[in-house]
Amino acid sequence: MCRILLVDDEVHAVRGLQAGVRWETLGIREVCTAHSLKQAQEVFSHTSIDVMICDIEMPNGSGLDLLAWVREHRPETVTVFLTCHSEFGFAQRALQLHCFDYLLKPVDYGDLESVVSRALEKRRKERERIMLEETSRRYARLWEEYRPMRKELFWKDIVEKTVPSVPDKIREHAERRHVLHNPLTRYVPVYIRVQRWHVTLSERDERIMEYALRKAAEEKLCGNLPDAAIVRVGNGEMLVLIPSGESCDEQAAVRLQRDCQEFIQSCKLYFRCELCGYIGKPVQSHEMAEMYRRLQQMDRDNVTRVNEAILLVDHNGAPKPIEPLPIELWVEWLKAGEKKRLLDDLARYLEDARERRTLDASRLQRIYQDFVQAVFFVLYWKGLQAHEVFDGNLLTDRPDEVLRSVHTFREWAGLVVEVAVDRLHHDEANRSVIERAKQYIRQQLGEQELSREQIARHVYLNPDYLTRLFKKETGMSISDYLQQQRIEYAKHLLTHSDQPVSAVALSAGYANLSYFSTLFKKTTGLTPVEFRRQMRHTG
Length: 539
Fold this sequence. Notes:
The protein has about 550 residues and is α/β, with parallel strands linked by helices. The protein folds into four domains: about 1-130, Response regulator (Rossmann fold), CATH 3.40.50.2300; about 180-310, Alpha-Beta Plaits (2-Layer Sandwich), CATH 3.30.70.270; about 325-430, no CATH class; about 445-535, Arc Repressor Mutant, subunit A, CATH 1.10.10. The protein has 23 helices and ten strands. Helix 16 crosses helix 17 (about 425-445).
């Protein structure tokens, strides 16, 4: 349904049009009226008008003046002029202002209905054209917004070999993905992997930080290159594909290495992480999967270099011969309980290997195996079994994480030596282990499900062994000590805070208020409320 505006300074002329034309049959929902230019402008200010029928000669502003204003402010409105004059100047000016038609008064209502019908049809087609253009622009925006995603999925399929590494198959895949792709273009792949976050991140926070790394890589490495792409290939891993253009010489590789190194240093500073970037050689799309595999192998072999941009040419295959491990010496130090001496020598050995670049992943794994064998040998010599000493996660739950780098191996070895020496020389070490366990219990009092397994895991001991050791050193079981500490903590809160008893119970690790009150009275002889009242009275 449409709206029409009748504008004429003669009131009777407007009323005649209102009554004489069959507006309903034309699909007109509302007929608005005005008797001057100013009144017409007011109607336009709050109403959408599809067709305006207007007299030309009016005081205080002609119909031509009104049409000029409408063309500027409401160009979608279709205008038909009615006038008593047939002067060519009026008609010429009306046509210049894109008037739809020009009728002489007195007008035949049938002729006017025909003109209005054609004007409404023009308005309908114009509305459809505008809607089509808006729809087209919206889908064009969506197309552009999703273009990086289509490009990323296209390259992800290539590097993961979902698409065969054959030019024709890749061309067909580009067409299916609606990705513009030139098979002759060569790209330099840069494989970037986060080696370590220096802050503890939730899974959501890690995704956010990875997004920040990606945006930084787009700005620093991709720049304004329209064909560049970034592909997420794993947690904390991305593959940056940079068109090499005509410049594939050594100087271009050095410039890219410099840019990559600056990117890594910025990420280290602002995102609190350690990472490495591995820069491949320029290849075409059908060669990309194989080049990506080579960069991945570089990363797996790299256990010594951190926060570096490494060129593929730097990776010179098998490392040089490595100095034999001083296993016999380490065994004697373990037996003697010389933790610091052993760990200092291990650090010296690994640092020497790092500086000489004689260490890769396979050799670090052999060092790991020999180290574990030495520890197990000393435990056997002492008549102990490994499962009686170590919590399972220290030896078996994370070998991949331990062997990710020299740094992670050193951290792990320090824990193993600490626990092993404490067990081998328990007379002088038991107290420190029990103190660590006690401290952990005090820190976790609010945890309702705190178990002996959690406590044992914190000090890297077998739960049964820790239970026996705790009983021997303190004269009470772990559960009794935990209960005692919770009641003591509750007494402190009741005395020194205004928290409700229910909140005190939760803070002390009791979800059930009734159970807490019963246990508290059994221990102290008073209910929590009575205890608080007595403490405040005596205070």
